[in-house]
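Form 7-S
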Amino acid sequence: MGPLEKTQSVGIVGAGTMGSGIAQLAARAGHRVVLFDVGEGASVSAKKRIEKEQEGLVARGKFTREEAGALVALVAAGDTIGDLAGCGLVIEAIVEDLDVKRRLFAALEDIVSPEALLATNTSSISVTAIARDLKIPQRLAGMHFFNPATIMKLVEVVSGLSTATETAERIFATAEAWGKTAVHAKSTPGFIVNRVARPFYGEALRLCEEQVADPATIDALMKEAAGFRMGPFELMDLIGHDVNHAVNMSVFGAYYQDPRFRPSNLQLELINAGRLGRKSGRGFYEYGEQAVRPMPLSMQAGPDGRPLEGFLPGSTCEVDGVWIGNTDGRTAHRLSAELGRPVILSDLIELQNATRCGFTASADVAPAQIDRFVATLERHEIRATQLPDWPGLVVMRTVAMLANEGFETVLQGVAEEAAVDIAMRLGVNYPRGPIGWAKKIGLDRVLATLDEIHRLTGDPRYRASLALRQAVDDVYTM
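Output:
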Protein backbone atom coordinates (compact mmCIF):
# COMPACT_ATOMS: atom_id res chain seq x y z
CA MET A 1 0.00 0.00 0.00
CA GLY A 2 1.24 3.46 -0.86
CA PRO A 3 1.35 6.51 1.40
CA LEU A 4 -1.42 9.02 1.93
CA GLU A 5 -1.78 11.08 -1.21
CA LYS A 6 -0.51 14.63 -0.94
CA THR A 7 -3.87 15.91 -2.08
CA GLN A 8 -5.41 14.53 1.12
CA SER A 9 -5.46 16.62 4.27
CA VAL A 10 -4.07 15.50 7.61
CA GLY A 11 -5.85 16.29 10.85
CA ILE A 12 -3.96 16.62 14.12
CA VAL A 13 -5.86 16.56 17.40
CA GLY A 14 -3.76 18.00 20.21
CA ALA A 15 -1.80 21.23 19.74
CA GLY A 16 0.94 20.57 22.24
CA THR A 17 4.61 19.98 21.49
CA MET A 18 4.03 16.59 19.90
CA GLY A 19 0.94 17.60 17.92
CA SER A 20 2.56 20.71 16.49
CA GLY A 21 5.67 18.72 15.62
CA ILE A 22 3.64 16.13 13.70
CA ALA A 23 1.78 18.96 11.98
CA GLN A 24 5.09 20.36 10.71
CA LEU A 25 6.11 16.95 9.37
CA ALA A 26 2.87 16.54 7.44
CA ALA A 27 3.02 20.06 6.05
CA ARG A 28 6.68 19.64 5.09
CA ALA A 29 5.58 16.60 3.06
CA GLY A 30 3.06 18.77 1.20
CA HIS A 31 -0.20 17.98 2.99
CA ARG A 32 -2.73 20.56 4.05
CA VAL A 33 -2.96 20.24 7.85
CA VAL A 34 -5.81 21.04 10.18
CA LEU A 35 -4.60 21.41 13.78
CA PHE A 36 -7.34 21.19 16.40
CA ASP A 37 -7.30 21.34 20.19
CA VAL A 38 -10.17 21.64 22.67
CA GLY A 39 -8.23 24.23 24.65
CA GLU A 40 -9.40 27.75 23.88
CA GLY A 41 -6.91 29.42 21.56
CA ALA A 42 -4.54 26.43 21.69
CA SER A 43 -4.61 25.76 17.95
CA VAL A 44 -3.91 29.40 17.11
CA SER A 45 -1.06 29.50 19.62
CA ALA A 46 0.38 26.31 18.17
CA LYS A 47 0.38 27.77 14.66
CA LYS A 48 2.21 30.85 15.96
CA ARG A 49 4.82 28.57 17.57
CA ILE A 50 5.22 26.72 14.30
CA GLU A 51 5.73 30.01 12.47
CA LYS A 52 8.35 31.09 15.03
CA GLU A 53 10.15 27.76 14.78
CA GLN A 54 10.28 28.09 11.00
CA GLU A 55 11.77 31.56 11.33
CA GLY A 56 14.47 30.06 13.52
CA LEU A 57 15.19 27.35 10.96
CA VAL A 58 15.47 29.97 8.22
CA ALA A 59 17.90 31.96 10.37
CA ARG A 60 20.05 28.83 10.78
CA GLY A 61 20.01 28.17 7.05
CA LYS A 62 17.97 24.96 7.30
CA PHE A 63 15.24 26.19 4.95
CA THR A 64 14.63 29.13 2.67
CA ARG A 65 12.12 31.77 3.64
CA GLU A 66 9.91 30.58 0.77
CA GLU A 67 9.98 26.98 2.01
CA ALA A 68 9.15 28.04 5.56
CA GLY A 69 6.34 30.29 4.36
CA ALA A 70 4.86 27.49 2.27
CA LEU A 71 4.85 25.17 5.27
CA VAL A 72 3.13 27.68 7.55
CA ALA A 73 0.53 28.39 4.87
CA LEU A 74 -0.41 24.71 4.78
CA VAL A 75 -1.25 24.61 8.51
CA ALA A 76 -4.70 25.78 9.51
CA ALA A 77 -5.89 26.24 13.10
CA GLY A 78 -9.23 24.46 13.43
CA ASP A 79 -12.05 26.08 15.38
CA THR A 80 -14.10 22.93 15.95
CA ILE A 81 -13.61 19.19 15.57
CA GLY A 82 -15.90 19.44 12.56
CA ASP A 83 -13.07 21.15 10.67
CA LEU A 84 -11.41 17.69 10.41
CA ALA A 85 -14.24 16.35 8.23
CA GLY A 86 -12.30 16.32 4.98
CA CYS A 87 -9.11 14.78 6.30
CA GLY A 88 -7.82 11.49 4.89
CA LEU A 89 -5.79 10.81 8.05
CA VAL A 90 -6.38 12.08 11.59
CA ILE A 91 -3.64 11.63 14.18
CA GLU A 92 -4.44 11.97 17.87
CA ALA A 93 -1.76 13.45 20.15
CA ILE A 94 -3.70 14.20 23.31
CA VAL A 95 -3.54 13.22 26.98
CA GLU A 96 -2.65 9.59 27.80
CA ASP A 97 -6.10 8.64 29.05
CA LEU A 98 -7.93 5.68 27.53
CA ASP A 99 -11.47 6.98 28.07
CA VAL A 100 -10.62 10.40 26.64
CA LYS A 101 -9.08 8.81 23.55
CA ARG A 102 -12.07 6.52 23.05
CA ARG A 103 -14.46 9.45 23.21
CA LEU A 104 -12.36 11.39 20.73
CA PHE A 105 -12.25 8.61 18.14
CA ALA A 106 -15.96 7.93 18.56
CA ALA A 107 -16.59 11.60 17.76
CA LEU A 108 -14.22 11.47 14.80
CA GLU A 109 -16.06 8.50 13.30
CA ASP A 110 -19.17 10.65 13.02
CA ILE A 111 -17.22 13.38 11.21
CA VAL A 112 -14.64 11.87 8.82
CA SER A 113 -15.39 9.69 5.82
CA PRO A 114 -15.51 5.88 6.20
CA GLU A 115 -12.31 5.65 4.14
CA ALA A 116 -10.30 8.00 6.38
CA LEU A 117 -7.48 6.51 8.46
CA LEU A 118 -7.25 7.10 12.20
CA ALA A 119 -4.01 7.00 14.20
CA THR A 120 -3.06 7.35 17.84
CA ASN A 121 0.29 8.66 18.99
CA THR A 122 -0.03 6.86 22.32
CA SER A 123 3.21 5.63 23.83
CA SER A 124 1.72 3.31 26.41
CA ILE A 125 -2.02 2.59 25.95
CA SER A 126 -3.24 -0.50 24.12
CA VAL A 127 -4.21 0.30 20.53
CA THR A 128 -6.67 -2.60 20.74
CA ALA A 129 -8.35 -0.98 23.74
CA ILE A 130 -8.55 2.43 22.06
CA ALA A 131 -10.22 0.93 18.98
CA ARG A 132 -12.61 -1.33 20.91
CA ASP A 133 -15.83 0.64 20.50
CA LEU A 134 -15.27 1.99 16.99
CA LYS A 135 -17.68 1.16 14.19
CA ILE A 136 -14.69 0.51 11.91
CA PRO A 137 -11.86 -0.49 14.26
CA GLN A 138 -9.87 -1.87 11.31
CA ARG A 139 -8.88 1.65 10.25
CA LEU A 140 -7.14 2.64 13.49
CA ALA A 141 -3.46 2.00 14.21
CA GLY A 142 -0.76 3.41 16.42
CA MET A 143 1.54 5.98 14.84
CA HIS A 144 3.98 6.57 17.68
CA PHE A 145 6.37 9.45 17.05
CA PHE A 146 9.25 10.24 19.40
CA ASN A 147 9.89 13.64 20.90
CA PRO A 148 10.85 15.95 19.26
CA ALA A 149 8.86 14.63 16.33
CA THR A 150 10.58 16.91 13.82
CA ILE A 151 14.01 15.46 14.70
CA MET A 152 13.67 11.89 15.94
CA LYS A 153 13.69 9.50 13.00
CA LEU A 154 11.61 6.61 14.37
CA VAL A 155 7.90 5.94 14.09
CA GLU A 156 6.42 2.79 15.64
CA VAL A 157 3.42 1.66 13.57
CA VAL A 158 1.39 -0.35 16.05
CA SER A 159 -1.31 -2.82 15.09
CA GLY A 160 -4.08 -3.74 17.50
CA LEU A 161 -6.12 -6.92 17.20
CA SER A 162 -8.58 -5.24 14.85
CA THR A 163 -6.12 -3.17 12.78
CA ALA A 164 -6.30 -4.09 9.11
CA THR A 165 -3.04 -4.98 7.39
CA GLU A 166 -3.81 -2.36 4.75
CA THR A 167 -4.16 0.30 7.45
CA ALA A 168 -0.82 -0.51 9.04
CA GLU A 169 0.93 -0.67 5.67
CA ARG A 170 -0.47 2.65 4.52
CA ILE A 171 0.45 4.43 7.75
CA PHE A 172 3.91 2.82 7.55
CA ALA A 173 4.33 4.13 4.00
CA THR A 174 3.09 7.57 5.04
CA ALA A 175 5.62 7.80 7.87
CA GLU A 176 8.39 6.84 5.45
CA ALA A 177 7.15 9.43 2.93
CA TRP A 178 7.42 12.03 5.69
CA GLY A 179 11.12 11.23 6.07
CA LYS A 180 10.85 8.87 9.01
CA THR A 181 12.04 5.30 9.50
CA ALA A 182 9.04 3.19 10.41
CA VAL A 183 8.87 -0.19 12.13
CA HIS A 184 5.91 -2.48 12.61
CA ALA A 185 4.95 -3.55 16.14
CA LYS A 186 2.12 -5.45 17.77
CA SER A 187 0.07 -3.69 20.42
CA THR A 188 1.64 -4.96 23.62
CA PRO A 189 2.73 -2.96 26.70
CA GLY A 190 5.57 -0.62 25.81
CA PHE A 191 5.48 -1.63 22.11
CA ILE A 192 9.18 -1.99 21.18
CA VAL A 193 11.19 0.93 22.55
CA ASN A 194 9.55 1.50 25.93
CA ARG A 195 9.68 -2.23 26.60
CA VAL A 196 13.20 -3.12 25.44
CA ALA A 197 14.68 -0.03 27.11
CA ARG A 198 13.58 -1.04 30.61
CA PRO A 199 16.83 -2.87 31.53
CA PHE A 200 18.88 0.23 30.71
CA TYR A 201 17.32 1.89 33.73
CA GLY A 202 16.53 -1.20 35.77
CA GLU A 203 20.03 -2.70 35.79
CA ALA A 204 21.65 0.64 36.59
CA LEU A 205 19.36 1.08 39.57
CA ARG A 206 19.94 -2.50 40.67
CA LEU A 207 23.73 -2.18 40.36
CA CYS A 208 23.60 0.96 42.47
CA GLU A 209 21.40 -0.78 45.06
CA GLU A 210 23.90 -3.67 45.15
CA GLN A 211 26.70 -1.11 45.76
CA VAL A 212 28.64 -2.25 42.72
CA ALA A 213 29.24 1.37 41.69
CA ASP A 214 27.87 4.87 42.23
CA PRO A 215 25.73 6.65 39.60
CA ALA A 216 28.60 8.75 38.22
CA THR A 217 30.75 5.67 37.68
CA ILE A 218 27.95 3.65 36.07
CA ASP A 219 27.09 6.59 33.79
CA ALA A 220 30.74 6.96 32.79
CA LEU A 221 31.07 3.26 31.97
CA MET A 222 27.91 3.19 29.87
CA LYS A 223 29.02 6.25 27.90
CA GLU A 224 32.78 5.86 27.67
CA ALA A 225 33.02 2.07 27.45
CA ALA A 226 29.78 1.23 25.62
CA GLY A 227 29.09 4.36 23.57
CA PHE A 228 25.67 5.39 24.91
CA ARG A 229 25.03 9.12 24.49
CA MET A 230 23.80 9.50 28.05
CA GLY A 231 24.25 7.37 31.13
CA PRO A 232 21.13 5.84 32.69
CA PHE A 233 21.17 8.09 35.77
CA GLU A 234 21.66 11.24 33.67
CA LEU A 235 18.81 10.16 31.44
CA MET A 236 16.47 9.39 34.33
CA ASP A 237 17.24 12.83 35.78
CA LEU A 238 16.40 14.36 32.40
CA ILE A 239 13.16 12.40 31.92
CA GLY A 240 12.06 13.01 35.51
CA HIS A 241 11.95 10.23 38.07
CA ASP A 242 8.22 10.57 38.54
CA VAL A 243 7.70 9.99 34.81
CA ASN A 244 10.30 7.22 34.48
CA HIS A 245 9.02 5.40 37.56
CA ALA A 246 5.42 5.69 36.31
CA VAL A 247 6.42 4.00 33.03
CA ASN A 248 8.26 1.31 34.98
CA MET A 249 5.19 0.69 37.12
CA SER A 250 2.92 0.66 34.08
CA VAL A 251 4.99 -1.94 32.21
CA PHE A 252 5.50 -3.99 35.40
CA GLY A 253 1.76 -4.06 36.02
CA ALA A 254 0.87 -4.70 32.39
CA TYR A 255 3.10 -7.78 32.37
CA TYR A 256 1.53 -9.09 35.58
CA GLN A 257 4.53 -8.31 37.80
CA ASP A 258 7.06 -10.09 35.61
CA PRO A 259 10.36 -9.75 37.56
CA ARG A 260 12.16 -8.49 34.42
CA PHE A 261 10.35 -5.17 34.84
CA ARG A 262 10.53 -4.85 38.63
CA PRO A 263 10.69 -1.14 39.67
CA SER A 264 13.30 0.22 42.07
CA ASN A 265 12.84 1.38 45.66
CA LEU A 266 15.94 3.54 45.17
CA GLN A 267 14.11 5.57 42.54
CA LEU A 268 10.94 5.64 44.62
CA GLU A 269 12.87 7.17 47.54
CA LEU A 270 14.06 9.98 45.28
CA ILE A 271 10.45 10.66 44.32
CA ASN A 272 9.41 10.58 47.99
CA ALA A 273 12.10 13.18 48.69
CA GLY A 274 10.93 15.40 45.81
CA ARG A 275 14.18 14.85 43.93
CA LEU A 276 12.67 14.43 40.50
CA GLY A 277 15.75 15.31 38.47
CA ARG A 278 16.54 18.39 36.42
CA LYS A 279 13.06 19.88 36.75
CA SER A 280 13.31 19.97 40.56
CA GLY A 281 17.00 20.89 40.66
CA ARG A 282 18.10 17.59 42.12
CA GLY A 283 17.86 13.89 41.33
CA PHE A 284 20.83 11.56 41.33
CA TYR A 285 22.80 14.71 40.54
CA GLU A 286 22.41 18.33 41.60
CA TYR A 287 21.63 21.05 39.06
CA GLY A 288 22.12 24.77 39.14
CA GLU A 289 24.94 27.26 38.82
CA GLN A 290 26.78 26.03 41.94
CA ALA A 291 26.24 22.32 41.34
CA VAL A 292 29.34 20.13 41.14
CA ARG A 293 29.07 16.83 39.26
CA PRO A 294 30.68 13.93 41.17
CA MET A 295 33.61 12.27 39.42
CA PRO A 296 33.50 8.62 38.36
CA LEU A 297 35.81 6.15 40.02
CA SER A 298 39.08 5.94 38.08
CA MET A 299 42.50 4.41 38.67
CA GLN A 300 45.92 5.57 37.58
CA ALA A 301 48.98 3.41 37.13
CA GLY A 302 51.84 4.01 39.50
CA PRO A 303 55.17 5.37 38.27
CA ASP A 304 56.58 1.84 38.04
CA GLY A 305 53.65 0.42 36.10
CA ARG A 306 54.98 -1.16 32.88
CA PRO A 307 52.44 -1.79 30.12
CA LEU A 308 51.93 -5.39 29.09
CA GLU A 309 53.68 -5.94 25.79
CA GLY A 310 51.51 -7.15 22.94
CA PHE A 311 48.26 -6.99 24.93
CA LEU A 312 45.26 -5.21 23.40
CA PRO A 313 42.29 -4.21 25.57
CA GLY A 314 39.47 -6.66 25.08
CA SER A 315 41.74 -9.55 24.16
CA THR A 316 42.69 -12.65 26.15
CA CYS A 317 46.19 -13.60 27.25
CA GLU A 318 48.31 -14.84 30.13
CA VAL A 319 51.11 -12.64 31.48
CA ASP A 320 53.30 -13.32 34.51
CA GLY A 321 51.01 -16.14 35.56
CA VAL A 322 47.89 -13.93 35.47
CA TRP A 323 45.06 -14.88 33.10
CA ILE A 324 43.48 -11.77 31.54
CA GLY A 325 40.16 -12.04 29.72
CA ASN A 326 36.61 -10.73 29.35
CA THR A 327 33.64 -11.34 31.58
CA ASP A 328 31.18 -14.06 30.64
CA GLY A 329 29.23 -13.73 33.88
CA ARG A 330 31.58 -15.79 36.01
CA THR A 331 33.29 -13.95 38.84
CA ALA A 332 37.05 -13.59 38.83
CA HIS A 333 37.08 -15.67 42.05
CA ARG A 334 35.28 -18.56 40.40
CA LEU A 335 37.35 -18.41 37.22
CA SER A 336 40.56 -18.26 39.27
CA ALA A 337 39.53 -21.44 41.08
CA GLU A 338 38.73 -23.15 37.76
CA LEU A 339 41.99 -22.12 36.07
CA GLY A 340 44.24 -22.41 39.10
CA ARG A 341 45.80 -18.99 38.60
CA PRO A 342 45.07 -15.29 39.30
CA VAL A 343 42.49 -13.65 37.01
CA ILE A 344 41.76 -10.12 35.72
CA LEU A 345 38.41 -9.73 33.96
CA SER A 346 37.46 -6.81 31.71
CA ASP A 347 33.93 -5.52 31.34
CA LEU A 348 32.47 -5.18 27.85
CA ILE A 349 33.98 -2.32 25.83
CA GLU A 350 33.38 -0.99 22.32
CA LEU A 351 37.02 -1.09 21.22
CA GLN A 352 36.95 1.50 18.45
CA ASN A 353 35.53 4.28 20.58
CA ALA A 354 36.13 3.22 24.18
CA THR A 355 37.84 5.67 26.52
CA ARG A 356 37.09 3.75 29.72
CA CYS A 357 37.20 0.11 30.78
CA GLY A 358 35.76 -1.47 33.90
CA PHE A 359 37.58 -4.49 35.30
CA THR A 360 37.81 -6.72 38.33
CA ALA A 361 40.44 -9.05 39.72
CA SER A 362 40.58 -12.15 41.89
CA ALA A 363 41.98 -11.68 45.38
CA ASP A 364 45.29 -13.36 44.48
CA VAL A 365 46.25 -10.78 41.83
CA ALA A 366 49.17 -8.74 43.13
CA PRO A 367 48.86 -4.91 43.15
CA ALA A 368 51.83 -4.68 40.79
CA GLN A 369 50.01 -6.85 38.27
CA ILE A 370 46.90 -4.66 38.45
CA ASP A 371 49.21 -1.66 38.00
CA ARG A 372 50.56 -3.13 34.77
CA PHE A 373 47.05 -3.81 33.47
CA VAL A 374 46.01 -0.21 34.21
CA ALA A 375 49.19 1.09 32.56
CA THR A 376 48.32 -0.92 29.45
CA LEU A 377 44.88 0.68 29.28
CA GLU A 378 46.46 4.12 29.70
CA ARG A 379 48.80 3.42 26.79
CA HIS A 380 45.67 3.04 24.66
CA GLU A 381 44.16 6.23 26.16
CA ILE A 382 41.57 4.23 28.11
CA ARG A 383 40.75 5.13 31.69
CA ALA A 384 40.47 2.25 34.14
CA THR A 385 37.71 1.67 36.70
CA GLN A 386 38.16 -1.20 39.13
CA LEU A 387 34.87 -2.82 40.13
CA PRO A 388 33.90 -5.35 42.79
CA ASP A 389 34.08 -8.98 41.72
CA TRP A 390 30.48 -9.09 40.52
CA PRO A 391 28.80 -11.36 37.95
CA GLY A 392 28.60 -9.66 34.57
CA LEU A 393 30.14 -6.43 35.92
CA VAL A 394 28.30 -3.31 34.61
CA VAL A 395 28.24 -2.91 30.83
CA MET A 396 28.09 -6.60 29.96
CA ARG A 397 25.26 -7.21 32.41
CA THR A 398 23.24 -4.29 31.05
CA VAL A 399 23.77 -5.08 27.36
CA ALA A 400 22.98 -8.77 27.98
CA MET A 401 19.68 -7.78 29.59
CA LEU A 402 18.83 -5.39 26.74
CA ALA A 403 19.55 -8.15 24.23
CA ASN A 404 17.51 -10.63 26.24
CA GLU A 405 14.49 -8.33 26.19
CA GLY A 406 14.99 -7.82 22.47
CA PHE A 407 14.92 -11.58 21.88
CA GLU A 408 11.85 -11.95 24.11
CA THR A 409 10.10 -9.22 22.12
CA VAL A 410 10.74 -11.18 18.92
CA LEU A 411 9.69 -14.46 20.58
CA GLN A 412 6.31 -12.97 21.47
CA GLY A 413 5.72 -11.73 17.94
CA VAL A 414 5.79 -8.05 18.84
CA ALA A 415 8.32 -7.21 16.13
CA GLU A 416 10.98 -8.75 13.94
CA GLU A 417 14.68 -8.74 14.88
CA ALA A 418 15.56 -5.99 12.41
CA ALA A 419 12.70 -3.81 13.67
CA VAL A 420 13.85 -4.18 17.27
CA ASP A 421 17.38 -3.10 16.42
CA ILE A 422 16.25 -0.19 14.24
CA ALA A 423 13.81 0.98 16.90
CA MET A 424 16.40 1.03 19.68
CA ARG A 425 18.99 2.83 17.57
CA LEU A 426 16.64 5.49 16.26
CA GLY A 427 14.10 5.72 19.08
CA VAL A 428 16.54 6.07 21.98
CA ASN A 429 19.87 6.55 20.18
CA TYR A 430 21.52 3.32 21.31
CA PRO A 431 24.96 2.80 19.76
CA ARG A 432 23.87 -0.60 18.42
CA GLY A 433 20.65 -2.54 18.18
CA PRO A 434 20.63 -4.98 21.13
CA ILE A 435 20.15 -8.16 19.07
CA GLY A 436 22.86 -7.25 16.58
CA TRP A 437 25.08 -6.22 19.50
CA ALA A 438 24.58 -9.61 21.13
CA LYS A 439 25.58 -11.35 17.91
CA LYS A 440 28.74 -9.22 17.72
CA ILE A 441 29.64 -10.06 21.32
CA GLY A 442 28.80 -13.74 20.80
CA LEU A 443 25.38 -15.15 21.65
CA ASP A 444 26.92 -17.91 23.74
CA ARG A 445 28.75 -15.33 25.88
CA VAL A 446 25.57 -13.29 26.35
CA LEU A 447 23.64 -16.40 27.34
CA ALA A 448 26.40 -17.54 29.69
CA THR A 449 26.36 -14.14 31.39
CA LEU A 450 22.62 -14.27 32.03
CA ASP A 451 22.74 -17.89 33.19
CA GLU A 452 25.55 -17.16 35.64
CA ILE A 453 23.82 -14.10 37.13
CA HIS A 454 20.64 -16.15 37.38
CA ARG A 455 22.52 -19.00 39.07
CA LEU A 456 24.19 -16.75 41.63
CA THR A 457 21.23 -14.51 42.45
CA GLY A 458 18.32 -16.88 41.91
CA ASP A 459 16.46 -13.83 40.61
CA PRO A 460 14.04 -14.77 37.79
CA ARG A 461 14.57 -11.37 36.17
CA TYR A 462 17.73 -12.92 34.66
CA ARG A 463 15.92 -15.86 33.06
CA ALA A 464 17.24 -16.12 29.52
CA SER A 465 14.70 -15.90 26.72
CA LEU A 466 13.94 -19.12 24.87
CA ALA A 467 14.57 -17.18 21.66
CA LEU A 468 18.12 -16.42 22.81
CA ARG A 469 18.73 -20.08 23.69
CA GLN A 470 17.38 -21.16 20.33
CA ALA A 471 19.60 -18.62 18.58
CA VAL A 472 22.65 -20.03 20.37
CA ASP A 473 21.62 -23.57 19.39
CA ASP A 474 21.19 -22.44 15.78
CA VAL A 475 24.75 -21.04 15.73
CA TYR A 476 26.18 -24.41 16.79
CA THR A 477 24.01 -26.52 14.46
CA MET A 478 24.60 -24.55 11.28
